User: Fold these one by one.
Assistant:
Number 1:
Amino acid sequence: MNRRDNQVDMLYLPDYMANWPWPRAINPHYEEVSAASNAWFRSFKAFTPQSQLAFDKWEICRYTHDEWPEHLRTGCDLMNLFFVIDEYTDVEPAPVVREMVDVVIDALNNPDRPRPEGEILLGKVAQEFWQLGIKTATASSQCHMVESLTAYLDSVVQQAADRDNDTLRTIDSYLHNRRQNIGARPSFAPMELDLDLPDHVFYHPVILELSVYITDLIILGNASCGLLDIASYNKEQAIGDDRHNILTIAMRQFDIDFLDAMDWVTNYHAEVEMKFLDGLKRVPSWGPKIDRQMKQYLYGLANWPRCNDSWNFESGRYFGSKGREIQKTRRVPLLPKVTSYHNTSLRRENVVVPLIDHLHYHAIQVQ
């Protein structure tokens, strides 16, 4: 029997980053570089004007924190690529998603080959992203970017198959799958564009372990590329898209209510924080040159959860125009469920990108 009433009309968002040692900071080049990246992306006309307006309010370039302007630009362009892939594939069955991601993979591996006439625009977006990014990337970082993006794209197909088959995952299987399709690993790649980390260092068990912990913190708090968790639960449950949310999975697996599930996720988040901090003490030394580069990379990793948390509230993705207020009060009204707002019959350039500030109004109109 649940210890609390199942009827929840107000969500409380715990300040799970309160004790994280890395403070918020924004790149000094953010305004200039994000404007250039967003202008580049809008040139593709990937969305209708209404959906592009909603997309713009997400301010996805806040998701990046790379030091140099050229690397920040690669990070911003990557976020634009992620989100258009997310929106285009979310409404498609797995075989179509497979075709879409194969176009992107081909563009990444052949950035100088002309794209076929009539191809879905994802190919051109991916190609131009990587044509620019590769100019300032070391050879090792190029390999890591393409490898991690390919793994992410393959996992997007698996997520589509889960939707097609109405697959309900356990927490363990969810985390295993989500570590790929949240897009964290390729999101880490811009942090090493000026580094030359050999594979025996980059793929060292301790470094991989630390990257998994950071990925899990992003998953638990909110991430990189689509269906997210604590912050996004409100949006997803409103439009009936919460199957891939760890709160929903915890409620089902443990037979608990929403508030108990929130407690479980918050406690698990704290456990993962401690594992990351302890893991930093076990990083080996590879000599002064590599150690300096690894210190820079680990600093970037450690900043990602703070970056992610700040973006949740500073963008319009999950809380619309009330993000800053909710960041202070930690309380947000539960959005009414909406069954007709998200028209999944619309595809590609006509796909609907929901505007959070309109969800509550639309729900009232159709009740």
Note: The CA atoms of residues 46 and 84 lie 7 Å apart.
Number 2:
Amino acid sequence: MDSVLAFFKDVRAIASFRNDDKPKQRSHSDDTIKQRSRLGDTTSLDSPLENQTSDLIIVVMGATGSGKSTFINLFFDHEEAPVGKRLGSHTQKVNAYALPVDRGYQSRIVLVDTPGFDDSKGDDWEILKQISGWLAHSYRADTKVAGVIYCQNMLHNRWSGASDRSFQMFQKICGPAAARKIVLMTTMWGMMTDDHILEEREQELKAAYWKSMIKRGSVVRRSRLSRDAALDTLDYILMKNAYYPLLHQNEIVELGMSLSQTQAGRGLLESYQKLIGEHKREATKLREEGGSTQEVEEIEARMRKAGEALKEARGDLRIPRLWRVLFLKFEL
């Protein structure tokens, strides 16, 4: 019984957590600032990374293969963030990298590399849990998310279902209020002989898919594998002084929601339900048209995987309701 009471005491403490509007500044001469670039992966959600309250976080997001790790490496003299050399994703965990302290910033700048949704080797629910856990830990450690960079691979000649899925999850994690500290980064410039094609694609993104975010204050920038340009983007974000939390951080920490209750979690639940329905229809059609057994089995395997993820997510959704009932009883 004592352990149960202690648990709910911790829940109340989390719910009452408040974040300052302005970051606490610290001089580079402070001996607590470590002169190293790699903070290590933060997939162990039992403890936050080596945060300092003066840290300013830049979260880098985007679909698989969008150039997130490549962009982060522009800030270093070597390949700090592993980059995938083959099809599929290399980043399978949330990793954080502190910039070398040589730019005159009064705070340590930490770049966070995140795995992409609709990942080739992972599961979207597991990816969301990793990102959610990292954001919650950093928020409780009183570090500030100064900005978010969303990378978009310009070599992709159309806005696919995977592109839309990734961008929707990104929006649900950040929330509308975060738009003014978001940079929509178009990548892979210079990879084609004629940039005119990429310029047309960029205009389409601005007019059709990114229009609402641009109206709220997000900006579009190009990554041309230039360190100076990357640093200019960083300076632009830091000049915003927009240190308020992301929507997902508020949902998890301030409101005490379970992952499935958040905007991102609910969106993923709906996506899984839709995906299962599509797989069922696809498998039925293949059987009726005499498709190969292997094709049907592959679709059924994907359907089972989506079903397992949906079951786990729904289980997560039920737990907080019990917590709230017990919490109210102990409060009475």
Note: Confidence is low (pLDDT under 50) at residues 2-49, 84-91, 321-332.
Number 3:
Amino acid sequence: MPRQLTTILTRNPAVLEQQIRAIVEKYVRQNLICFFALTSNDSVDWTRYWQLLRSINQSQTVGSLSSSFNGVKTSKGNLSGYLGCSIGLFEPSEAVCFRSTIAGDRQAQVGRWHSFRKDEDADASWPLGKNMSWEDVWNRRGDGADSPSIDLGETPIEQVQSLVYFTDRAYQGLSRSLSQTYPLASKVGLIAPSTLTVTELPATMLYQNNIYSTGAVGLALKNRYKQDISFQNLQPISEPMTVGSSQGNIIHSLNGDANPTQLLLRILESTPGTSAANPASYRFLNERVFVGQVGADGKPFRVVHITSGDPSRGSLAVSSDVAPSADSKVQFFIQNGATANSLEWPGQDSDKTSFKFDFITVPELASSGELINMSDDHSIVLDGTFCAATDVGIVAHRPEDKEECVGLDCPIGTTASLETACS
């Protein structure tokens, strides 16, 4: 179990430093592993906090800059106005740090900061022989058969029960590798937000004594954590439907309808908010529409963004590598417009009954300078909770699932959690 999980929230950088220093002084020179998330802010010298946290154990420190809690409201107030630092401390027997450079999928090259992550020796090629089809290529791409694995030293695979990590946007190779190597483990990753205005890097992750803008850093945990994923303000606009056929990231038929794009347009036509001035075709092109797989309880457990559709050919494309499979139950969803202002705080109550990691997706913040208030000494400290926000996305896998539940372009208000009872 963690020696400590804590989330600190305040508007005053001096108060935040004071709170961090108190934790550091309590645990320094105890050979603990330090895992942290700091809200990025272009008006705050975040390196001061990092140097403090590194003093706990320079060779066993893992962290990332994260987004502010924009739009998150609680009984304690609107957390949009707070700086935050979450800290997790672990015995070396309970956790192992890792750094990954496993290659992600090739992305369109638009500008210097959008290049994909690549290992020098990781160029995978699939020979297209006469007996190999495109379906074989898609299946090979998704099964992680030849994926490299993260280096956990001498830690046996069976000891890894859960994984929590920070990653850049090219997470796909790591995601497949973790699913293949640790199929029974709970896995949650926060996609690090852009820090161009803070560090001039596309992302800022910290591992031991180094700063990285690509790859991933995280912890392999030797205790079992219960995983949960929830979606706030996600509005269903259809009844559950059965996928007839899909291939790659394409849905070809739904409920026996060979034109799922037209089916979606008909559903949007009868959805509140559609009008002559805001027709279904305009909403499809300009609003975020999702398709979610639903379980036996009727709740969505995997939600992906619909990126395009072809009314003439009928197919729908999703943002994930792999669309919901044939015979799975799915629903269409749209994002409730109130989401940006009414996200529920995912942290636990003050009654400490468990240790919990919470990652939440939030709207992008136009400016972070408004978080600072040097005259406000108020702070919120939540023990037992490690909470971090991102305006990019979350990667989460349920145990035994090959495909992630969410990834890039997941709905605002998505919360992925790992929780275990206190000892």
Note: Confidence is low (pLDDT under 50) at residues 108-130, 140-145.
Number 4:
Amino acid sequence: MSADDQAFLDALSSVPNDIRRYSNDVADYVDKHLEKVSNVLREALSSSPWIPEPVRPKPPPPPPRTFISAVSAQSSYYTRITSWAKNNKILTTVIVLTVGGITYHYIKKTTNKRKKRRAKKAQNGARLEVVVIAGSPSEPMTRAISLDLERRGFIVYVVCNTIEEEIAVQNEARPDIKPLMIDITDPSSARASIDRFIIHLQTPHTPAQGVKPHHLIFRSLILLPTTTYPSQPIATLSPSTLSDLLNTRLLTPILTLQTFLPLLQILPLSHPHSNTTPTQPPIKPSVLVLTPSIIANLSPAFHLPESSIISALNSFTAVLTAELKPLDIPVTHLQLGTFDTSSFSPHNKQLTTISAARAETLKWDDQTRSSYGRNFVSLNNTKSLATGRGSSLRELNDAVFDAIFSRRGGVVRVGMGSGVYGFVGRWIPGGLVGWMMGMRGVEASRRGEFGGVQGKGLVEQRSRSTSPGIGVMDESEYGYLYQRDRHNGVGSEEEGHNAWNEQL
């Protein structure tokens, strides 16, 4: 067969393949256009209202997204976000700081909950570390902190000034919560008590016969002044009341610290059975000062004792920190908010507070009562409603434990409202704070010369105040309470509560 014939046969054999390819192309082209037409018709018919619902065709499905389209969509979203962030820099900064702060707070809170907080033990398994609490044994905070530290493995000593306080500590019936009798009013007796305590720390202790002895380690001194203060107008505070408050709330923690300063300066004690190693040098004890902070930050009316005394204690703590810093003794100031102490205090505490405020006004003269009575009761009622139950005592106990072993010291806010009310006291005007707490203006119906007021003096007129739970008394109602007070004498809290209830 010649070459021409072979070429002709090859061309002839390729004709079916070309026909198949061309026919497939035509079929694909026709199918594509028919599908497009059918989709258009289906979309048009599916949106036609004249076709009945049962026979109306469904709209065509959306085309599947390809990788390129997905990437382009993501890049477009990213471009939009970056463009919005550039155009709103301030709002973007606020959002980033807020999200970062919430995330940091959540991580820190979760970490603190998982942290194991236990006191160290001696090599023989006995309790080793000692904590001294200088606070009233009847205070809920003192009882809560002492019981928690004892459960964590500390030996807790509670400073007692009277036999009654020593009995209160012994009534706890806990073997590692012990009274430490120190009469701070007698310097020689107080020094003798500290000397005996130093000898106790230097004496070797053995949990059982034949066990290697160990020496106790003084870990921390906790100053816990009382957190309860009377609420009265300045006009009704007697000199004896002010003197008693200054002695018990301000001078007592200062004198207690003075008593322990010689011991803090010589610690840690050296003895042959030291529990430290050359690679682990002895650690100086820490000092903790716990004070309420809400009233001191707001400085509301009728709270002169607490505002002034807490401010003085804050200054005292700042000076103490500066003096003990060269001695490598950390001082931590725990500024407390409100805590749920219902397990250590009466359950009707809020009712008792309101009743006491109402009964307190019956002890005032009619001029003072007309000037301050309504605002006094309104503010106490608002304060009781605002504080609520408070934070859990576990938060306080964890903060105390962390402060004991903290080497930095400083100010730590803990408890509900400690941070918020600090911000409010610094930045919110005092007049607005007083109005939010129920303070309203008082108008006098009848005025005379100072010291010679006609009738019964300044009497509060009816007000439009909407403070919850507070009634408003006119002149006749004040007169009724005044005559009843004079007839019965200075009434008790229960009598005062009943008298107010008759008028509210």
Note: The two ends are 129 Å apart (CA to CA).
